[in-house]
From TrEMBL:
UniProt xrefs under Pfam families: YbjQ_1
PANTHER family: UPF0145 PROTEIN SCO3412, UPF0145 PROTEIN YBJQ
Family annotation (InterPro entries): UPF0145_dom_sf, UPF0145_YbjQ-like
Protein family membership: Belongs to the UPF0145 family.
Name of the protein described by the UniProt record: UPF0145 protein JFN87_28645
Length: 123
């Protein structure tokens, strides 16, 4: 399977910088806008649940669930970036994920961070 199926992150084509750090090397924070988040809730597919239950008896990676979680995190990040743009930010600092069960019928994934305006520093 291609690595794209099992990894995520921000596209290199986006105009919003997303980092898990307090600052961005080579940039200066000009304005802190505030907390933002992107949220999605995915229901569990009955077929994948049955397959996961069977796989858990013999061990190994649950590839279907892994791919679903990657897609869900990527969707939450896309919504986070949309929220940053809507508030006038060009960066998200201290980005994190929070994942929880949603009433035992799905998984809630929240990408959150601090929206900010950053500018390149002079060399």
């Amino acid at each position: 399977m291609p690595i794209e199926d099992y990894s995520g992150g921000v596209s290199s084509e986006t105009d919003v910088i997303v980092v898990t750090t307090n600052d961005v090397p080579g940039y200066q924070v000009q304005e802190v806008i505030g907390e933002i988040f992107g949220l999605t809730v995915r229901s569990r597919h009955m077929g994948s649940q049955i397959g996961a239950g069977l796989k858990s008896m013999v061990g190994g990676e649950l590839r279907g669930l892994t791919k679903t979680l990657v897609a869900t995190r990527n969707q939450a990040m896309e919504r986070l970036i949309e929220a940053a743009r809507a508030r006038g930010a060009n960066a998200v600092l201290m980005m994190r994920f929070d994942v929880t069960d949603a009433a035992q019928v799905g998984t809630e994934v929240c990408a959150y961070g601090t929206a900010a305006v950053v500018a390149k520093t002079a060399p």
